[in-house]
Amino acid sequence: MAKTARTFRIRRYDPAEDAAPSYREYVIDVPEGMTVLEALIRIQAEQDGTLAFRYACRGAVCGSCAMAIDGVVRLACRTQVRGLEGETVTVDPLPNLEVVKDLVVDMDSFFEKDFAVEPWLQPAEPAPERERPVSPDDWTEAEPYTNCILCASCHGVCPVAARDPEYLGPAALAKHYRFLADARDGAGEKRLKLVDSEAGVWGCDVVWSCSKICPKGVRPTKGILATRERVKP
Questions:
Q1: pTM of the predicted model, to two decimals?
Q2: How far is the C-alpha of 88 from the C-alpha of 224, rounded, in Å?
Q3: So what CATH class is 3-105?
Q4: E strands of 87-230, at which residues?
Q5: Do the Cβ atoms of 7 and 90 come closer than 8 Å?
Q6: Do domains 3-105 and 108-231 have the same CATH topology?
Q7: CATH superfamily of 108-231
């Protein structure tokens, strides 16, 4: 199998060292089919055991390995090294979140925003003996938003999240709309009050960056605009 040497320029930062972030370079052979995540694992195993990054499923399901690769936010597990241009691959942590170490970011604030929109079903009727059925037609609007894997890629490219730490962000607002559009949910008015603010749906710049970057095809901006229509008096 043919191999090609590539240089990985990785942003390093360790708060315990009391030093500014810097880049370090590593050269490895890249066989056909190698992903950026696999390259990072190899670098960690063979060249630098101190390199820190986050991953879990390796199959674009958990969302753990979102990071900036050559300036574009992507999932490292589904990004082919051979598909990237140039001989040097630059890897940075996900933007708009505090860096814990190297490529690991603090997700606490992101998940707090997600929790703030009450992302659980709140039916108006008492619980039935069995399930709450929903027809395919009634599920059409909400279904695309269930694909979110909470990778925070959309948060990383959001210009509002970059300047306003109070902004709920596209992932949380998409999750909000997933339940607002669910025909089984009965908390519509209550839900609208949660996001009727500049920190909510009115803070969005409507530049669609979040929708373009989502690895699962979720379109937060569409949900935000639909929510705005529901909020209008």
A1: 0.93
A2: 38
A3: alpha beta
A4: 88-92, 99-101, 104-105
A5: no
A6: no
A7: Alpha-helical ferredoxin (1.10.1060.10)
